[in-house]
Write a structure and sequence with these properties.
single chain; alpha/beta; 7-stranded parallel sheet; 40% helix; binds nicotinamide-adenine-dinucleotide
Length: 324
């Protein structure tokens, strides 16, 4: 298939590109490099530096590539920043997303896989979270992702656009070629590994008094390659009929991992001390956030292959040790 990947120079997008090429798809990356890295994109993929808000240029790029499907990864995705600057999130996650949909219509592209987020659920009443649970985002990041998902429903019935939205929490780990290079970095595993590598003095832990097995928050971590495979698998599902519009959760398949467990596993793998600075709970941080992937497993046969925490952290550490 001829697949365009928006945000394909970013962390997860660059691994989606690796998996697409491995499975012999033709790939065009569309990325404005506001956060991405040109050298993360394999040479055998096409690359166009473009902002999705430039609908005319995006439609032209899709047409010239003879594009059959789009995997939409480009977004702003910092929860805290979204609260301080919601306009940025409505602008990039909604307006730019809608410009992409219009460009796809203009270019006759009718299949989309959308990288959404489990932040659409807000503070869920039960765990693990299932797709039919209430969606009540508590920040503009989750809100704008949900608004885009809702637009997809109307575009499906009116224009026959087929889409699969994937909702997940924390991407983690690395392939031999690509790993996490966010600036600023807000994700726990690279922050912990920065301490192990001597680039930071300690890792902050917000709250040790949660009703969990060790008092720290429990979260889902999915290996980036498992996520990428889910995006590629969803391409085929979106191609089965016009106007399909589904959302699937992606979770690591167990009870999740606590912050303490992540830090301890990282200390073992790196054989370095990882000092901790304990602070108070952050407002709006639920004790446990774990997504159920039963539905995508049943419908599409997706299963994570790298769900062991030590394997995820080891892959990130190996990548980080090579990259620095
Ligand atoms: N990283 C996670 O843990 C996680 C969890 C859930 C969902 N997601 C979603 O997955 C996607 C990718 O996340 P990531 O961690 O790889 O982020 P990232 O910041 O590494 O990648 C995003 C890419 O999109 C590009 N981009 C942003 N706005 C653009 C625009 N207007 N036009 C063109 N390119 C643009 C950036 O340059 C960057 O390369 C995002 O949509 C994010 O919301 C990520």
């Amino acid at each position: 298939m001829r697949v365009a990947v928006t945000g394909g120079a970013g962390y997860i997008g660059s691994v989606v590109v690796e998996v697409l090429l491995r499975e012999r798809h033709d790939v065009l990356v569309l990325d404005n490099l506001c956060k991405g890295h040109r050298d993360a994109v394999l040479e055998s993929a096409g690359f166009t530096q473009i902002d999705l808000r430039d609908g005319t240029a995006v439609a032209r790029a899709l047409r010239e590539f003879d594009c059959e499907a789009v995997i939409h990864m480009a977004a702003d995705s910092l929860v805290g920043e979204s609260v301080i600057d919601p306009a940025k999130y409505y602008g990039n996650n909604m307006t730019a997303g809608l410009a992409l949909l219009d460009a796809m219509r203009e270019a006759g592209v009718t299949r989309l896989v959308f990288s959404s987020t489990a932040a659409v659920y807000g503070e869920p009443a039960k765990q693990p979270i299932e797709e039919d649970d209430p969606t009540q985002p508590t920040n503009p990041y989750g809100e704008t992702k949900l608004a885009f998902e809702r637009a997809l429903r109307w575009y499906a019935s009116a224009y026959g656009l087929s889409s699969i939205s994937l909702r997940y929490f924390n991407a983690a780990g690395a392939t031999a070629r690509n790993g996490e290079r966010h600036l600023p970095e807000t994700h726990l595993i690279p922050l912990v590994l920065d301490v192990a590598a001597g680039r930071a003095l300690s890792v902050s832990v917000f709250g040790m008094d949660y009703p969990t097995r060790d008092g720290t928050c429990v979260r889902d971590y999915i290996h980036v390659e498992d996520l990428a495979c889910a995006h590629v698998l969803s391409l085929a599902a979106a191609a089965t009929a016009p106007g399909i519009c589904r959302a699937y959760n992606l979770g690591c398949g167990g009870d999740g991992y606590s912050v303490r467990e992540v830090i301890d596993a990282a200390a073992t793998i790196t054989a370095r001390p990882i000092p901790v600075a304990v602070g108070p709970r952050r407002p709006g941080d639920p004790a446990v956030l774990v997504a159920s992937s039963d539905r995508i497993s049943r419908d599409l046969g997706w299963r994570p292959h790298h769900q062991r925490l030590d394997a995820i952290i080891a892959s990130a550490w190996q990548w980080m040790s090579r990259a620095h």
